[in-house]
């Protein structure tokens, strides 16, 4: 791969080779574009962006529902030389406005219905109406930190300080991962890839670019369809989806509510899952409905996309109850297991997984200190920088190079496939009027993977404490849907450690 090669250049070769192949299909609307049509439409989008003042190295926000037009927008942004900054159109507008302001986006491509709420939280000028009911807004920048060459996209994740932080990923990062996928999964122009993950979620990189760089088709699964297991199962059959990728939570719902016994799943040849642990009983049940595909457990934080993988055996032993490992390091990365000082631990001992290689992020947007903290500078005798995943693993003694996931070092969890900093949930409830204290913990749950419980201390001088309904409604206005807590508990005071910090261990015992 050429150092200067970018995603649009690779897509251009697909257009030459597969001009008439269907590139992107939306079964919910019937919209469909061939490679030639997608190329032309994204060229028009790039032209509109450049006319609006977008320059190479700028950032462009994206706040639209999943659709064929959203794929056009992504490619148009990349063709303009900018990087895209996608947000969840269903998240609170103030959160999305913070992301766009923090990343100093030059423009925002936004669904027309969302324009008024975004403009309440920032300075924008309407530039143009776009196809698909979208609008192009130019942001009036107070300060522009300048261009970021080779940046392809910035994905914002939950932040422990109460504000999301942007993970900067380059064209080189994306292509390093996509090329590994091509080598491992051998996509063909006849493949049809599910696009279940929203575009602000790192799973979308596989969904989008593996098919687009190989002449295959993207099948858009919009938000409404993605939440309907029975409709998803029908879509797999009717659309002839061959390659599936989602969180285990979605696959569990397919097993429980998808009526898979009534569906022909024979088109599937590959089922990938990532983002959280897949309980064995649900994985085993899924394989009974769809025994023929190859199953892969993919692992990696947003900062590395996928960095390890494990192919699930064709037969899961009846007596197995433990989840499968996160597996082996992808061939474009290197992995080590280290102690708190950065020294390698003995094989079989637990330590932190650190990663080095082509998929590892450029850094956090506008957070140099957080970026420095995310790396070991030069780990003893290994050279270079290593990204600290924060995940505790151990290398299996009897299977060299294979890693088993144990848990987290910090207070970040994976929930419904998303990375959630419990501190961001706490920060939201600290802002609730008359709320004196708030502490969030995560509790393992077989069905949900993780449920979030928030302990609250209410100022009794302000009258009756808010109900669960009011607390959830508040969260819906201040947090993305996947971060809304499951349970609330009122206490007279939060337990404290000897150093006057919140005692989370006691809260967990409660």
What can you see in these coordinates?
Helix 9 (229-239) crosses helix 10 (248-257). The mean pLDDT is 92. By secondary structure, this protein is α/β, with parallel strands linked by helices. The radius of gyration is 23 Å and the shape is globular. It folds into 3 domains: 7-227, Rossmann fold (3-Layer(aba) Sandwich), CATH 3.40.50; 332-408, Luciferase, domain 3; 421-509, ANL, C-terminal domain (GMP Synthetase, Chain A, domain 3), CATH 3.30.300.30. The strands form 7 sheets. It has a 5-stranded mixed sheet with strand order 4-3-5-7-6, sandwiched between helices. Strands 12-13-14-15-16 form a 5-stranded mixed sheet, with helices on one face. The protein contains 15 helices and 27 strands.
Biggest sheet strand line-up: 4-3-5-7-6
Structural class: alpha/beta
Radius of gyration: 23 Å
Q: Termini distance?
A: 54 Å
What is the count of structural domains? 3
Mean pLDDT: 92
Number of DSSP helices?
A: 15
* CATH architecture title of the largest domain: 3-Layer(aba) Sandwich
* Envelope shape: globular
The amount of beta strand, in percent, is 25-35%
Helix fraction bin: 25-40%
Secondary structure tally: strands: 27
Low-confidence stretches: none
Which fold does the CATH topology of the largest domain refer to? Rossmann fold
**How would a crystallographer describe the biggest sheet?**
5 strands, mixed
Looking at CATH, the homologous superfamily of the largest domain is: ANL, N-terminal domain
The CATH class of the largest domain is identified as Alpha Beta
């Amino acid at each position: 791969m050429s150092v200067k090669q970018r995603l649009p250049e690779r897509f251009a070769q697909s257009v030459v080779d597969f001009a008439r192949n269907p590139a992107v299909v939306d079964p919910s609307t019937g919209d469909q574009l061939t490679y030639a049509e997608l190329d032309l439409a994204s060229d028009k989008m790039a032209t509109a962006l450049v006319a609006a003042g977008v320059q190479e190295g700028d950032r462009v926000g994206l706040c639209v529902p999943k659709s064929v037009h959203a794929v056009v927008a992504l490619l148009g942004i990349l063709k303009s030389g900018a990087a895209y900054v996608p947000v969840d159109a269903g998240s609170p507008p103030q959160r999305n406005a913070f992301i766009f302001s923090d990343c100093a986006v030059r423009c925002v491509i936004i669904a027309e219905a969302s324009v008024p709420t975004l403009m309440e939280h920032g300075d924008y000028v309407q530039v143009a109406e776009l196809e698909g009911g979208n609008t192009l807004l130019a942001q009036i920048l107070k300060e522009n930190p300048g261009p970021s060459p080779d940046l392809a996209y910035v994905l914002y994740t939950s932040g422990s300080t109460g504000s999301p932080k942007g993970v900067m990923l380059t064209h080189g990062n994306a292509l390093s991962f996509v090329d590994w996928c091509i080598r491992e999964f051998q996509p063909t122009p006849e493949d049809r890839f599910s696009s279940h993950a929203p575009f602000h979620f790192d799973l979308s990189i596989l969904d989008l670019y593996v098919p687009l760089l190989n002449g295959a088709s993207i099948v858009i699964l919009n938000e409404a369809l993605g939440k309907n297991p029975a409709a998803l199962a029908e879509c797999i059959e009717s659309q002839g989806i061959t390659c599936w990728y989602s969180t285990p939570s979605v696959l569990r719902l397919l097993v429980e509510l998808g009526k898979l016994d009534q569906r022909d799943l024979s088109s599937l040849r590959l089922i990938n899952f990532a983002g959280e642990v897949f309980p064995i009983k649900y994985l085993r049940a899924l394989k009974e409905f769809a025994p023929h595909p190859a199953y892969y457990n993919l692992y990696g934080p947003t900062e590395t996309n996928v960095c390890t993988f494990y192919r699930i055996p064709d037969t899961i032993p009846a007596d197995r109850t433990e989840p499968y490992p996160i597996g082996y390091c992808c061939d474009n990365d290197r992995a080590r297991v280290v102690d708190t000082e950065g020294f390698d631990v003995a094989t079989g001992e637990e330590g932190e997984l650190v990663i080095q290689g082509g998929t590892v992020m450029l850094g956090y947007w506008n957070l140099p200190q957080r970026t420095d903290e995310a790396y070991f500078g030069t780990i003893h005798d290994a050279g270079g920088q290593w990204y600290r995943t924060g995940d505790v693993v151990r290398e299996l003694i009897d299977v060299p190079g294979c890693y088993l996931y144990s848990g987290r070092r910090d207070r970040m969890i994976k929930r419904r496939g998303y990375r959630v900093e419990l501190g961001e949930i706490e920060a939201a409830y600290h802002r609730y009027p008359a709320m004196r204290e708030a502490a969030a913990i995560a509790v393992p749950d077989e069905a949900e993977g993780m449920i979030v419980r928030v302990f609250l201390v209410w100022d009794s001088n302000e009258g009756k404490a808010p109900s669960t309904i009011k607390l959830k409604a508040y969260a819906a206005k201040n947090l993305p849907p996947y971060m809304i807590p499951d349970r609330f508990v009122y206490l007279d005071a939060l337990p404290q450690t000897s150093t006057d910090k919140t005692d989370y261990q006691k809260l967990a015992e409660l």
